[in-house]
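Internal QA ticket QA-208
Title: Verify multi-chain structure generation after dependency bump
Assignee: T.L.

Test input:
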Amino acid sequence: MSSDYEYSDDDADYYDEEMMDGTQDDLSMDSEDDMDMEFGGDDFKTSPNGKRKMYEVDYESLSQPAVEKLMAEEVEYVCNVCGLDDSAANLLLRHLNWNKERLVEKYMDNPTSLLVAAGISVPEPTAVPSTSRTRSTDNASASRRSSRGASRLLTSIGVSKAKSPVTSPTLSYHTPRSFKPKLNEPFVCPVCFDDSPQIRTLALECEHTFCSECWATYLVAKIRDEGELSVKCMAEGCAMACPDPFIRTLLVPSPRSPPGDPQQEIDHAKAWSHFQELQVRHYVASNKRLKFCPYPGCTNTVSCPSAADKSSLTTVVPTVSCGARGIGDQMTQSQPQQSGLGLAGKEHKFCFGCHIESDHKPVVCGVAKMWLRKCRDDSETANWIKSNTKECSQCQSTIEKNGGCNHMTCKKCKHEFCWVCMGPWSEHGTAWYSCNRYDEKAGVDARDAQSRSRASLERYLHYYNRWANHEQSAKLSLDLYVKTEKKMEDMQITSSLTWIEVQFMKKAVEEAERCRMTLKWTYAMAYYLAKGNEKDLFEDNQRDLEKAVEDLSELLEGPIEPENIPTLRQKVTDKTVYVQKRNEIVLEDTAKGFLEGRWRWNVAVDGFDDPADVVV
Amino acid sequence: MASIAARRLGKELKEIHSEGCPVGINLVKADDFETWWFTIEVMGESEYKGEVYTLQFRFDGQYPISSPAVQFVITDGRQAPIHPHVYSNGHICASILGNEWSPVLSVTAVCVTLQSMLASCKKKERPADNDRYVRHAPDNPKKTQFHYDDDTV
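Actual output:
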């Protein structure tokens, strides 16, 4: 039905931005600064301001009220530019997925059709579609007749005020008339057939009137069960959308109204707050610069303009945190001084660019994703089988040849065959122990292919084992943390150190865990880095960090002798500082490399130039 | 909630009893407010001339806010009509039973719509994906997300 009002994108081209300039700047300086939908990746390229590290992105954590404020700013902008009221602007923004540039463009082009398509205005009488096939038949039942009555009414009203709703929606909108019951005829709600004179009746501008109880039940069902962002009028085929104040009137009892059914009031209140949350979620989902915190039960949003574009994900690793900690009941919104490794203190850290892992610094999303896919894939197991075994040509059993001559006898089916050519042994005649049936060149190729496959497998395993090892170590850090706490207590008892003075152990454990996460991902990165000086330098940095972390871990795991505690403290503190420095170097240098486009891959990676020549 | 459904269905039933059903539609059984049965027949010239089908309506407590579950009965020797929008298990792909349902519609209005859906059919055939759908179809057709692709039939 709305297809008549669809615009092609070509219509947009002639639109001149200058048209907007004066108004835009005056009216919405703030919202422009915060919310510009069009964004390049430039922010990050400016030299980092004192605090922010090269490998960190600028982001801001927003609570639900803060997001609602941003939404209100957008609504206000549309109100000012188009001369609409709040609820109409809201419906329009929802209709166009909060793309206000497109909204203004479309509105300037043809306000009537846009308002009709968004369900804000009643279509012109001629545009009233014959909504149902049943209308053509004569056998309509009583309830059909009642809805026909409504549509006849609609037509007559449409004529009587044909000029008003479209040209100036602000004026005709919310006129008390449309919320007012019609008194001239006894009213029967077409949904519940209630005809008692006391019932409260409501209608949208389309004048399809129903009782308030049916409206409320309908709204609750649409919001709760179907998660509707824009609830249409109850009448068949009517495209009018319920504006927010209308929904609010029905679901939120006014302070003066007598108390109703408590359970129903709770349901209504829940539906209303769910409706508002749906709007916030829709707004966040429509805005590339915003993302919801993925932690369960968390309602915060993170704004990260520098990672809004997919293309920026080849230059930055947007690790962000919504500011809250903990999961479920233990969640706190503040950043407490004491950060733990346990669930209670777990920071809501996530990657703005992907869902694969909360923090995969220093490697970019695309490469991290490729690596994980490779690790999950069974193809590596298959590779091993391929390079080490063959199948019996008769019973398909997998056979590993671990020595001996080429004359094979399958243990299972007793089939005798040649390992080299896989043909039946009987055809070899007298050429025992050597196979001259195999074409020489093909034989060389086959051997080459097999050894290449074996070498690539070994190479993969080299990186994988180190990657998995660091992951495992990081997982064990929880145990190490508990052990360390115990040690810290011991130290307090056996030495004269105070609680504050033994904190160095905790710091060291946390630092070691952080570095192991970095190290883990450097192996994924190194696997895909093309051979060359850049890779050598990368691996030098990686080696230095790894050595430092292992030294620190050894110190942390070691036994504590009371007399050595001052030396241990000195050593651990020194190592922690050193490890931290090495970690910074790896992260900084990698991030810089991404910005400079210095890294070359040995495979094709999304968003990067194809590798010129693959050197593995 | 349930009271709205009961009141509304009671009123609809009363009207059916007093005014009768539209031509070609007859009430078979409506002993409660959960399940009703109707027979439906296409009057005049059509592909389905002389054929009588049985429709089953199932209502939940949310009726008429939520649509009834409507399907053709295919047990006890009865069959679903062969129609491009009717699956052999009796399920019907019609937008007014799904996303275009309006609380204003009634049981007889649905019957009349389905009657005209049959009447306008030019060629008796099953939906293209009938076998695949019927194999995996849920018991209640309301659980199916139909894709309404053709308004002409």
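Spot checks passed. Chain B has one domain: 2-138.
Status: verified.
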